Sequence to fold (66 residues):
Amino acid sequence: MGKKNEMTYSQAVAELENIVKSLESSDKANLDLIAQQVKRASELMEFCRKQLTVIDDEIQKIVEGI
Fold:
């Protein structure tokens, strides 16, 4: 059984894109919503950074093994 809350890099990027679209298309400034979206975007960006670091490490190991 897989983890329910496990997110992929692609899912995180897609959610970030949706947040950006939402912020760009909003005519009214709902500060509470904007704050929530910025916080979530920050969490997603940190997740993506960690994923990229893991992928980079894996690629380096593969290249070294060749």
Q: What stands out?
A: Residues 7 and 14 are 11 Å apart (CA to CA). Helices lie at 9-25, 31-65.
